[in-house]
Design goal:
It comes from Cladorrhinum samala. InterPro entries: DUF7587. The chain is α+β, with helices and mostly antiparallel strands. It has 5 helices and 13 strands. 24% of the residues lie in helices and 27% in strands.
Length: 206
């Protein structure tokens, strides 16, 4: 299978400085099973399944292989990756959380509410990556340099417009709330503290 590198620059971030006061809530589904690679840990946030090295802010993120992203997005994959999946649609996240809770084999199931504005500010100030894979893949399908490889790598692979990826970590300071699901029911425990944003880095992955 062909492969290609992906470059993620500042223009892939969702806002310019002129409208940085806008916010979007993202939702991360987690559970208490051993197979959950990105659980939420109260007071610490969410970390990716694979250790990530910090890189300097302001650098271009270079994913040396598009297959790194594809591997993460493949739900059958059980190998830890550098990324954390989040959804910008609550109903999508809630359906997945209820599915796991109703199965009764995943332990405690929950949804973490995350401030995208916080993640973006963190990416700009401390170095980081937060992006929509659908948008990045769509661009690579139209670029002359990557068009053929992208067509092969992503052939027949479903991509959601609602999914975002964060690299390495979602710090506790970006967490706006946690909702726990038990079977068909749910309870919501709000968290109002939105203190200093911490912890992302740009990456160059092999």
């Amino acid at each position: 299978m062909r492969d290609y590198s992906i470059r993620i620059r500042c223009h892939n971030l969702p806002w310019s400085s002129s409208d940085s006061d806008r916010d979007i809530t993202l939702y991360h589904v987690f559970d208490g099973s051993a197979s959950c690679q990105t659980p939420y840990i109260a007071g610490k946030g969410i970390k990716s399944g694979k250790d990530c090295r910090p890189l300097d802010p302001g650098q271009t993120c270079i994913l040396r292989s598009a297959k790194i992203v594809r591997r993460h997005l493949d739900w059958s994959n059980r190998t830890p990756t550098h990324f954390i999946s989040l959804w910008d649609d609550y109903d999508t996240a809630a359906r997945e959380a209820r599915r796991r809770a109703d199965a009764g084999t995943h332990g405690r199931v929950g949804i973490v509410r995350v401030s995208l504005r916080g993640l973006v500010r963190n990416a700009r100030e401390r170095g980081g990556v937060v992006f929509r894979p659908y948008k990045v893949v769509r661009a690579s399908r139209h670029a002359p340099r990557t068009r053929r490889a992208a067509a092969e790598v992503w052939k027949g692979f479903p991509l959601s417009r609602k999914e975002w990826l964060a690299y390495g970590e979602v710090p506790q300071s970006c967490v706006a709330g946690v909702e726990y699901f038990e079977g068909a029911g749910a309870r919501y425990y709000p968290r109002t503290e939105m203190s200093m944003i911490a912890g992302f880095s740009l990456l160059s992955l092999d």
